[in-house]
Amino acid sequence: MTQAPTDQLPSRRRHDREIIALAVPAFGALVAEPLFVMVDSAIVGHLGTPQLAGLAVAAALLTTAVSIFVFLAYATTAAVARQAGAGDLASAIRQGMDGIWLALLIGAAVVAVALPLAPWLVDIFGASDTATPYATTYLRISSLGIPAMLVVLAATGVLRGLQDTRTPLYVAIGGFAANGALNAGLVYGAGLGIAGSAWGTVIAQVGMAIAYLIVVVRGARRHGASLRPDAAGIRACAQAGVPLLIRTLSLRAVLMIATAVAARLGDTDIAAHQIILSLWSLTAFALDAIAIAGQAIIGRYLGANDPKGAREACRRMVQWGVASGVVLGAAIMLARPLFVPLFTSDASVQDTLLPALLVVALSQPISGVVFVLDGVLMGAGDGRYLAWAMVLTLAVFAPVALLVPSLGGGLTALWGAMTLMMTVRLLTLWMRTRSGRWVVTGATR
């Protein structure tokens, strides 16, 4: 086996330490987020099936609404990391504040839409007559927490850009604990039912936003950064986020098409698809943690006018992506006999699930590289290319996936189409990184 040159070893070790220091806490914070819904589901589930069904519909709507604006974290991370790399922490925090003000404006607009349209949104989502009132109640109350949720996204981006992923982990843990205690107390102790669950979550989210704001405001005062809203800065932040919004919407469209196709294949296939999608999402958290490290590290190197360091970090993170994908793929295959029975005891669902799961396992190294390169280009502020690349990927995936039922393909064929989607993403991202056009140095792109 060929050994790395001696002069490369210190560089690799430095990059490894940086990646681990940022990715491990980021993974913890990412995993804590879906636990909010799990806690709500566990507590509300004991109220009755209609209440749980209502929560499922409302939570899906809220998750979709918030995930659309994840660019608040991504764009802010890249901008702040560049300024931090350039040594201008005051400007870094100033740009972070622009992102936070934008989050508040978007949050207010979403609340203004969600409150009056809650019954209509629940209706078009297909909630049953018994679940509709509970879904509407939960959605209306929980929508009040959307501004706080978006502030959390933007403030998380600020801290990631400052190379701090530990504080978001601590805030996420505190929020998770508060959410559980508040939900139990308000649902059962105060007898508020599903409304108590919604209020508990809103209070926890507001508490998390306040915790973040305290940290950011302290940093602003320490470095002399203004906290006032700046129209030009907010507008620039919004403009930087538009391409990432297009990318996110295109990715959401891929997932929605896949689920719609699985539903057309029959109850057995959609049940198996949901299990695989849950597992796929879990592996995505692990890979996304490396991508988050990539955003922060690449932005810092480019801001510090160090293109060589950025390229070396990119190369090392790709190696991490491949290795992580191999480990996750092997774990899926080895653990199949253990976790599949936990999801279903239906033999037909298991038979449908297993070959498709093999496809998912084999594609994990591809996913590992895709997530890493996605993070690298986000950290470089290359959002416009990411947007067009994802639109192209959607254009390739959609017709292939929609042909699966008419050609007699099953769930395995559908997940073959999902692997094709990830392969197209890999090719477009690899071409961009190979071109070197993403390497634009300076405090701003």
Automatic annotation (TrEMBL):
Xref: CDD domains: MATE_DinF_like (cd13136)
Segments traversing the membrane: 19-39, 51-80, 100-121, 141-162, 169-191, 197-217, 244-263, 275-299, 320-340, 352-373, 385-404, 410-428
Domain of life: Bacteria
Keyword flag Cytoplasm: no
Membrane topology: Multi-pass membrane protein
Pfam families: MatE (PF01554)
Entries under InterPro entries matching the protein: DinF-like, MATE_fam, MdtK-like
Subcellular location: Cell membrane
Keywords: Cell membrane, Membrane, Transmembrane, Transmembrane helix, Transport
Family, similarity comment: Belongs to the multi antimicrobial extrusion (MATE) (TC 2.A.66.1) family.
UniProt name for this protein: MATE family efflux transporter
Organism from which the protein derives: Streptomyces glycanivorans
